[in-house]
Structure formats: structure tokens, C-alpha cells
Amino acid sequence: xxxxxxxxxxxxxxxxxxxxxxxxxxxxxxxxxxxxxxxxxxxxxxxxxxxxxxxxxxxxxxxxxxxxxxxxxxxxxxxxxxxxxxxxxxxxxxxxxxxxxxxxxxxxxxxxxxxxxxxxxxxxxxxxxxxxxxxxxxxxxxxxxxxxxxxxxxxxxxxxxxxxxxxxxxxxxxxxxxxxxxxxxxxxxxxxxxxxxxxxxxxxxxxxxxxxxxxxxxxxxxxxxxxxxxxxxxxxxxxxxxxxxxxxxxxxxxxxxxxxxxxxxxxxx
Length: 269
Hints:
Layout (H helix, E strand, L loop, with lengths): L2 H4 L3 E5 L5 H10 L5 E5 L11 H17 L4 E4 L2 H14 L4 E2 L2 H11 L4 E6 L1 H6 L1 H9 L4 E6 L3 H6 L6 H11 L9 E4 L8 H6 L6 E3 L2 H14 L11 E5 L3 H12 L5 E3 L5
Parallel strand pairs: 1-2, 1-3, 2-9, 3-4, 5-6, 5-7, 7-8, 9-10
Helix pairs in contact: 2-11, 3-4, 5-11
């Protein structure tokens, strides 16, 4: 084991604030780890961009975090995971963990009927990454993929408790009332902020699942197996954004329950 490498931070990036759900779970499970979070708010949202543009954004975020001497990279963004995970895993010299596999795992562990819905950005739905993964392992499953492009902006604008969130959720999810599903995956890390509005739009028996905890457990498993845990008393958390730092800081307090020290950075293209 290289103790110098074990003491390096874990890098996490997302298109905005949503990936803080993943950071929160990693911090809870691994309180000794140093974490660097990068929110690419200047180019939010990723979900409406072309695959080429998403890959370019992911590359630039990854390159910046690699310059911070990280020991592992977490893509806490479903859209970026869907389009850039394999490429980053093949090119970076550190382990790269996406959010797709953890989301798939927790969804299929939750469902009993194998009738499930995927709520995600247009980019994630169009990639078919969840649909293909589920059908590959569960060929009899019935999957209802629904693009919800306004959910992430509602979260970023702090409108998750606004009546508009209820109306938009009801509009997007009305077809699920007769789909006889038993589980829904929030396949965008922004969507947990709208959990109440989403739950109200679904039959009460439908379980809503999120990938953040499963992702954090995967990170812990790798660190343990590789003997790469940081053994310090308490980890330090660094928060970076590419734009809108005041709004980001306010929303981060909602996610994390505490004030953060946020710094703006410029990514090199």
C-alpha cells in the first residue's frame, strides 16, 4: 500500500449541485476522507447537450481534478456517467466510479415486480444506458424511462417546494399512475430535492430510490479492498464551482445542512 497515495483526496464532479447528495453519503460513510467537489455550474445543465459536448465537459472536469492529485474520481452525474464513464475509465490512471451501476443495483434490489421507471435528463434517457443495463440482466423487466428536463433547473433555482414543482411532476409522471410499477429510480442527482413533489405524483405504494448511498458503499468497498483508506482523524471538504457561487452556496446548505466555503474556478479547455 502506498500511504502517500492513500492520503490523497477523492474527486467528485457534477454539472451543478446535485452531486452533493453523493458527497454527503461518502462523507457519512467515510468521514476520514478528504473530498474535492466540483460543480460545473457555468455549463449546467448537461442533460440537454450533445454527447460530444457532454464528453468534453467531463474531460475538462476530470483533468482539473486530476491536477489536484486525487486518488479516485467519482462522476456524480448520471448524464456524464452515461456518456463519458468508459472513456474516463480507460484513460485516467485512477479508479473512476460512475453513478449508473449503483443506481441500477439499488433499483433492482428494491423492485419485486420488475416493473420500474427511470426518471432522468433527456441526455441520460436518450443514451439508453439504464434501459440496456436492466434488459441485459433482467430480460423480463418492464422499464418506463421518462425524461424530466425541468426537474434539475427547479432544484438549482431552489423551487423544489414551489407549487410549480408539483404541477410539473404531475405532468411528467401522469402515465405512471396506470403503469403498475413498484419502484422509481431518481437517475439524476438533482432529483432528490424534488422527492416530495415526485412522491405526490406517484401511487403511494411506489418506492422511490436514489443511487447516492449505493455509490458511497461502492467507494468504501474499493478503498477497503485496496487498503487506500485515509487514516486521519477527520476529512476536509473543498467545494468548487465554475459559476454562480452565491446560489450554489445557498443550495449546498440545503443539501448538507451547513455552510460551505465555496471557491470559483475556471476550467481550461
